[in-house]
Design goal:
mainly alpha; 76% helix; 294 residues
């Protein structure tokens, strides 16, 4: 009897050792599988990173051998069809127009996103401000000369074309935040940018100009416009006229937002586009046909 119990104890011990060995082997195999999967994932990630780096290197162009490469690439057409061709032509047009500026910005503004260029952040900032000033001067000059050729007043040209050019960044930022669900931020951006433009964008340059002219006031009307206003041929100066028009547009915007309970919908967007189209039509008609009389 004791002999039988001893044999059963040995068998039970052997069975426990076998089960433990199997469990250890299973854990070891599972661990090896995890390590293998991790290694494959890391290799796959490295391959993707290498592909991205190769794509970035391929996207670099070197127009001048003695100057750094620029981040640009020729537009390619990946799809077929009429709309694909239209987009391809537009991409080429945008590439041709923007490529000189991409080269100039790359060669004159240090890229502070790179570690070795971070100490030149102040130079990057100053060069960016300088380029903004140069491009603003060129834009105003070109728009003024174009208006002179088309016999359109500089005030109307600034009201339409320069206003569009300077408001495109605000439009893009409003679209981005609206897509993220922050419609209130898009509306406040539109209002805040106009407040900034009217108060600081006008007040600071006028203050600098008057300081240069030793306190001499700046006339917003030309000699011809003052003569028309004095003779009664001009009913209202354009600044006053479009000021009242701006107030009317703001009133229409508030009425539309009240009607939609301050929800930005497609109907709201189309209504705002319609109001802006009517504003452009009025501005061009009063300039071309009314001769300051309407």
């Amino acid at each position: 009897m004791p002999r039988k119990k001893e044999d059963e104890g040995k068998k039970r011990k052997l069975w426990c050792q076998t089960q433990m060995a199997k469990a250890i082997e299973a854990v070891r195999e599972k661990k090896m599988g995890y390590l293998k999967a991790s290694k494959e994932f890391q290799e796959h990630g490295n391959e993707n990173q290498e592909e991205e780096e190769e794509e970035e290197e391929e996207a670099k162009m070197k127009p001048c051998p003695c100057l750094p490469a620029v981040s640009a690439d020729y537009p390619t057409r990946k799809k077929t069809g009429c709309w694909a061709w239209v987009k391809h032509i537009l991409r080429w047009l945008l590439f041709v127009l923007s490529f000189p500026f991409v080269c100039l910005f790359t060669w004159t503004i240090p890229d502070c996103s790179k570690e070795h260029n971070r100490k030149w952040f102040w130079l990057s900032f100053l060069m960016s401000v300088l380029w903004i000033a140069v491009l603003s001067f060129v834009m105003v000059t070109v728009v003024g000369r174009t208006g002179c050729l088309l016999k359109i007043d500089t005030y109307t040209m600034g009201l339409i074309f320069i206003a569009v050019g300077t408001s495109v960044p605000d439009c893009i930022s409003s679209i981005l935040v609206a897509r993220d669900g922050f419609g209130d931020m898009a509306v406040s951006n539109a209002i805040g940018s106009n407040v900034f433009d009217i108060n600081l964008g006008l007040g600071l340059p006028f203050l600098v100009r008057m300081a240069i002219d030793k306190g001499k006031p700046i006339s917003l009307l030309s000699e011809e416009e003052r003569g028309l206003l004095a003779s009664g041929k001009m009913v209202l100066p354009p600044h006053v006229k479009f000021g009242f028009l701006l107030l009317l547009i703001l009133l229409v915007v508030q009425i539309v937002l009240l009607a939609t309970r301050y929800r930005l919908t497609k109907a709201t967007g189309f209504s705002f586009l319609a109001v802006y189209a009517m504003f452009l039509t009025y501005a061009l008609v009063q300039e071309v046909h009314c001769n300051q009389a309407c």
